[in-house]
Amino acid sequence: MFCVYDLHSHSTASDGTLSPRALVQRAAEAGVEVLALTDHDTTAGIDEASEAAQSCGLVLIPGVEVSVSWNRQTVHLVGLNLDPHDSRLDAGLQKLRDFREWRAEEIGRRLDKAGISGAYEGALALAEGCLVSRTHFARFLVQSGIVEDERKVFKRFLVSGKPGHVPGEWASLEEAVGWIHAAGGQAVIAHPARYRMTRSKLRQLLKQFVALQGDGLEVVSGSHSRDDYVNMAKHARDFDLLASAGSDFHCPENPWIELGRLPRLPEGCKPVWQSWNLSAQTDLRSQLG
Ligand code: AMP
Ligand code: MN
Ligand code: MN
Ligand code: MN
């Protein structure tokens, strides 16, 4: 019934630059039929997105992207089709947001020592009262003319070993899967090819994820190559994981990652949406004509 799915996107509720409403409108214009809003560590944008989706004739899947620490590295889990107001999910995400607040101040202090003043205040202003991400620091440094582009800010200041890097613990894999399941959602490992793990390390992650009843793998991602689609489809099949597809759209300024341009899942993948009952939303669509 539906063909065009995009199950990974960001709004101003985390580090995207479009409001939830503007994001949904852009997705609908790009031909997306089913969109998941998956902001980092918050579901604060979902209500606005759901409301906008009704007037655009698009199905909005409530989601979240949870920051996880696994094996001394950061891994992201996308939670899909969940209750955005579940109290157990929110209590878990609140811990991550508290850590983010402290981390943002600490990044500011460290950048200050490195000779860049006002970065915390700058990032906070760009976050406009929503959670602060490293992306906001990157944008601030670019807008202040200190660094040419966001990628370079990460490389020079924000990644491990660089002056503004703050190590810390996010959720455990077990906690994150537990919170997503508590909210009735499906847990999906986001952009698996982005972690630069060896094949055996990735399979170790997948094995643990499956043991924790994890549900799926993001086979098609805006940051994956064609080879990645094929490899990740094989891993999904080997571990009997469902397959997801999401652009990871953050902003219109990045021409490489746009809504509604994803290829179909490779043959043999079981789509994560296969068990979803989208008929309630479909009824609404037909009522709207
Ligand atoms: P945080 O969750 O606050 O640590 O920020 C992570 C976010 O930063 C990711 O979701 C990306 O949107 C962005 N990001 C991470 N690495 C890079 C990079 N090398 N260049 C540009 N953006 C990045
Ligand atoms: Mn992001
Ligand atoms: Mn991510
Ligand atoms: Mn993302």
Q: Fraction of residues in helices? A: 40-55%
Whole-number radius of gyration?
18 Å
- What class would the helix/strand composition place it in? alpha/beta
3D shape: globular
Strand content: 5-15%
Give the arrangement of secondary structure elements:
Blueprint: E1 5-6, H1 20-29, E2 34-37, H2 46-56, E3 59-70, E4 73-80, H3 87-113, H4 119-127, H5 134-143, H6 150-158, H7 173-182, E5 186-189, H8 199-211, E6 216-221, H9 226-238, E7 242-246, H10 279-288
Parallel strand pairs: 1-2, 2-3, 5-6, 6-7
Antiparallel strand pairs: 3-4, 4-5
Helix pairs in contact: 1-2, 3-4, 3-7, 4-5, 5-6
Bound molecules: adenosine monophosphate and manganese (II) ion (MN) (3 copies).
What report would you give on this structure?
42% of the residues lie in helices and 14% in strands. It has helices spanning 20-29, 46-56, 87-113, 119-127, 134-143, 150-158, 173-182, 199-211, 226-238, 279-288; strands at residues 5-6, 34-37, 59-70, 73-80, 186-189, 216-221, 242-246. Helix 1 links the parallel strand 1 and strand 2 (34-37). The longest helix is centred in the middle third of the chain and has 27 residues, at 87-113. The protein is globular, with a radius of gyration of 18 Å. Bound molecules: adenosine monophosphate and manganese (II) ion (3 copies). One manganese (II) ion binds at residues 65, 76, 190-191.
